[in-house]
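Assess this today:

___
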Amino acid sequence: MKNLCVCVGFFFFALTGFAQQSVEQTFGENFSEKNKISADDLNRKMKSQKEFTGDVTGQVADVCQAKGCWMKLQTSGGAIMVRFKDYGFFVPKDISGKEVVLHGSATLEKISVETLRHYAKDEGKTAEEIAQISVPENQVVFTASGVKILEN
């Protein structure tokens, strides 16, 4: 009887421990997360740096609805555009709101009106919304060689 109680107790302990672990999906290059920073921290760093290389974590704000060929990370100062290295992989189109970890590099880029309109079309914006885009924007652009989508 004592052994049965110990076994049942161990079973429930193991069950609750495993239930709280995160499950993740990896796209692109597999990587070990080292010295990751938040998307907000990346935005702050890019005000004084030209380039950043490393791991960034954040919440997905938007995903290309055409193919999953880009996404945006939400920050308190706007969004960070995320592209995938060499157009080598895509992410699922239904991951808005999920937490991700990215591996790669970031630069500050001037995005043309034509490209901004292309992104707006991919997001599913209306023709009127797209037509209102009339000036280029400086954006932090992260080129990811690997993406981990964290799911609880």
The first helix runs from residue 2 to 19.
